[in-house]
Amino acid sequence: MTRLEVNLSADMPGHLFGCWIRRTHAASQTKFSTQGVTSPHKWCLPATRHSGNGFCRLSALRFSHRGGRKTVWILRPGHYSKPCGFPQKSVRPQEARMLKSRTVMKVSPGAGNLGIDTRMLAPPREGEVLLKIKRAAICGTDLHIYHWNDWAARNYETPLVLGHEFCAEVLETGPGVTSVSIGQIVSGETHLFCDRCEQCRANRRHTCLNLRLFSKSGFGCFSDYSVVPANALRVVPDRISMDTATVLEPLGVGVRAAMEGDVSGRSVLVTGCGPIGLYTIVAARALGAASITAVDLSKRRLEMAIRAGADEALAPQVPPEFMMTADVDLVIDASGSADAIESAMEMIKPGGKLLLVGLPGRNLSIPPVRLINREITVTGIYGRLIDETWLEMERLLTSGRLRLDAIETCEFPMTEFDAAFERAASGTTGKVLFNLDS
Ligand SMILES: [Zn+2]
Ligand SMILES: [Zn+2]
Questions:
Q1: How many whole angstroms separate alpha carbon 23 and alpha carbon 189?
Q2: DSSP E strands: which ranges in 49-201?
């Protein structure tokens, strides 16, 4: 363990409460804490990594002030550090670099039962990246886990770290990581693929034979920090806002459905206007659908569907004869309701398509004769094509063709996790986010 001496000049601030050091010679960034430092002064810091010649060339310092503001100084040559003769504490480097992180956990089975746990994160290992989570969004999967329905009870075990939709800053990269670098803003692909199997080689990474799901792998992002595999990360283009970057993963499902349905010039019926249904509507509009009809039980969601770009929004209680008219080219189900899918099936024109995004709670009853005589194609949508869907989504967003302004979001701090989950479950807003940028 060595210590570094950093010479701060008189133009540096008075009271500093924390410092980030970025080194030019190594892809690493380490957090140090101090209190009540007054300039001008010499500041001695523990250093767990430095260059072999004893001199560590620092390129930037980021300070947290008392009020929570952060400032970055690009260091001039006089600010470079050198090893100093301060007494060394006997701390193992690994322990010195453990990072304290609060995280929202599902503590035990049953409805609710969430809590905040504080964990110590080890530095990223080979192929891993340390992230400062900025925002995270509650997904339908998180809600299933929150309510602990049969599906969640079958598929998950507690204690469980929650959250898989996020936007974060890269703080440190482990050995061998070249796809992202420190300071970049990233979002996450939640289908973790092996890149070796037959499906991956056939450009179907989203259905990798060795697929691991982010939500089941213990990473979690309703946290201050997280260490995740580098191949789960997508660098967010500059023109995409942080709130939009947080929902790229679910938005990608809507974009994929609209792409798969080849919506341009076609009439589209979207059943279910939760977040995925709303994202499907904005994507279908951006990709040139001729008409979009939205169906949902909730009046509030139907209003959101119209704002998102649907031409018509219907409650399923409309006269059955209207609902039975076979006049749409494409049905995209985002409701996961078997009843809704079976009714919507009646509305598909011969030669049309049914795309299933939501997971129904029971088997469907669709007469094969209808599929055969009308030559209807039924396709499942399982996540995003990696990388095609991401590239198309980024193109639509950066060109301004796809906008999420019309989809309401509301933000909660991490500590209000119960209120956030209840709000998401109420269906009274488009998407619920945690703001973790503190
Ligand atoms: Zn999700
Ligand atoms: Zn694979």
A1: 29
A2: 58-64, 70-74, 82-83, 99-106, 114-121, 128-137, 160-161, 165-173, 185-188, 191-192
Ion ligand 1 residues within 5 Å by Cβ: 139
Q: Distance from the CA of 252 to the center of ligand 1, in angstroms?
A: 10
Is residue 51 pLDDT above 80, yes or no? no
Which ligand minimizes its atom distance to the CA of 192? 2
First-residue to last-residue Cα distance in the chain? 30
Q: What number is the average pLDDT over the span 293-309? A: 93
Residue with the larger pLDDT of the pair 184 and 324: 184
Q: What is the spatial distance between Cα 297 and Cα 52, in angstroms, rounded to a whole number?
A: 65
Residues with catalytic annotation?
141, 144
ipTM of predicted assembly, 2 dp: 0.95
Backbone angles phi, psi at 340, to 5 degrees: -65, -40
- What gap in Å lies between CA 27 and CA 211, rounded to an integer? 29
> Can you give the C-alpha Rg of the chain in angstroms?
25
Give mean pLDDT, residues 346-359: 94
**Ligand 2 (single-atom ion) residues, CB below 5 Å:** 193-194, 197, 200, 208
Which ligand sits closest to the CA of 204? 2
Ligand nearest the Cα atom of residue 195: 2
Banded model confidence at residue 24, pLDDT cuts 50, 70, 90: very low
